[in-house]
UniProtKB/TrEMBL annotation:
Domain Deoxynucleoside kinase: 7-207
Record-linked Pfam families: dNK
Organism: Paenibacillus zeirhizosphaerae
InterPro entries in UniProt: DCK/DGK, Deoxyribonucleoside_kinase, DNK_dom, P-loop_NTPase
SUPFAM superfamilies per the UniProt record, alphabetical: P-loop containing nucleoside triphosphate hydrolases
Protein name: Deoxynucleoside kinase
A GO MF label: kinase activity
PANTHER family from the UniProt entry: DEOXYGUANOSINE KINASE (PTHR10513:SF46), DEOXYNUCLEOSIDE KINASE (PTHR10513)
Amino acid sequence: MKRGPFIAVEGPIGAGKTTLASMLSNELHIPILKEIVEENPFLDKFYQNIDEWSFQLEMFFLCNRYKQLEDTDLQYIAQDKPVISDYHIYKNLIFAERTLKGIKREKYRQIYHILTDDLPKPNIILYIRADLDTLLYRISKRGRAFEGQIDPAYLQQLIEDYDTAMASLAVREPSTVIVTINGSEVDFVEYPEQFAQIAAQVKELIQ
């Protein structure tokens, strides 16, 4: 069955996913699906003690994203209507593989696949790749209190995990178009012409 454009904007913490997704939503007049972040009750505890709170944090994200995508499929995707999201459900595994260990990681993998294997997947991914200094600057600029506790080493590892994950997705989902944006050189907020180039590329892909 033909499906309309399902665009996901991805990248590590601080890359500018929600900002770019919102700008494209306005520019292209496409509904936007935003992930729940600050509503997660385990975030503060997680950054204070990753080992202790990672399973609770990741399960909260997984269940909420599952519900969001299930509703989005009914409202838009299954009806061949375009939609843009500021995340790909696969990000759950990116984070869980890094933070969970042993039995908890195995249990999480099983639950992830049960919930997500039959969910619709994006056919276009905009991957914002940025270096550590850029991410730290943007995280500091937006001023979320709980993000002030992020260990730069964790963030650097996340950058590498995202590169690995995008390469894996390119193999796992060969029909998905992955567009990589150099977030360390491209500032689509400060420079309208750079955003216009991204928007034009997306327009070509969804025509």
